[in-house]
Amino acid sequence: MSLARALLGMDLVHVVRGRARAGRIVETEAYIGPEDLACHASKGRTARTEVMFGPAGHAYLFLVYGLHLCVNVVVGEGAAVLIRALEPGEGMQGLRTDGPGRLTRALGLCLELNARPLDRAPLFVARGVPVPRRHIEVSRRIGVDYAGEWASRPFRFHDRRSPFVSQGR
Q1: Of 6, 69, 115, 152, which is most buried, counting CB atoms within 10 Å of its CB?
Q2: Residue 169: what pLDDT?
């Protein structure tokens, strides 16, 4: 959970054909491991989730409904942090980044980036300006109602000042 909060204000950067596309992270959700019924790791180790059980600091990318790509930062032991929204930066002016599928489209991400370390190009998290605690709002996660009591846990974090935060359903 501390990583989900700490990522707010950092930059997510994808280098495409030598040009950077970047955005400031303004919304995240924590998925804390196999006991969390909203977490993919709750189904155990599979080919899809293997990266979540590996070293921290790698990308976990997956498709939702076979359509929308999502990007996570692996914490390890089955835990990860979903990046839900970005404030558009370099190379992304005018693009929608207020939601996990929109931000991955705007960044030009693809499944081939799955399991890569996030400390170097082509996809990496760069130091930004941390969001002060007083500007961080904490709430329930979005779109995980199937997870029973886990759906209402306060595992979503966002910069309350940002107009780029996704809208909950």
Answers
A1: 69
A2: 45
Supply the CATH number for residue 134's domain. 3.10.300.10
* CA–CA distances in Å: residue 159 to residues 97, 119, 124: 14, 23, 21
Domain for residue 12, yes or no?
yes
Where residue 141 falls among pLDDT bands split at 50, 70, 90? very high
- Name the token pair of 26: 């303004």
Instruction: Kindly report, residue by residue over 92-109, the tens digit of the pLDDT.
Output: 999 999 999 999 999 999
Q: 91 by DSSP, 3-state: which?
A: coil
Q: What is the mean pLDDT of residues 151-165?
A: 96
110 closest CA partner among 57, 62, 51: 62
Task: Return the exposure string of 94-109: e unless at least 16 CB atoms fall within 10 Å of the residue's CB, then b.
Answer: eebbbbbbbbbebbbb
Q: What is the pLDDT of residues 52-93, one digit of tens each?
A: 999 999 999 999 877 899 999 999 999 999 999 999 999 999
Sorted by sequence, the CB contacts under 8 Å of residue 21 that are 6+ apart come out as 13, 14, 15, 90, 91, 92, 106, 107, 108
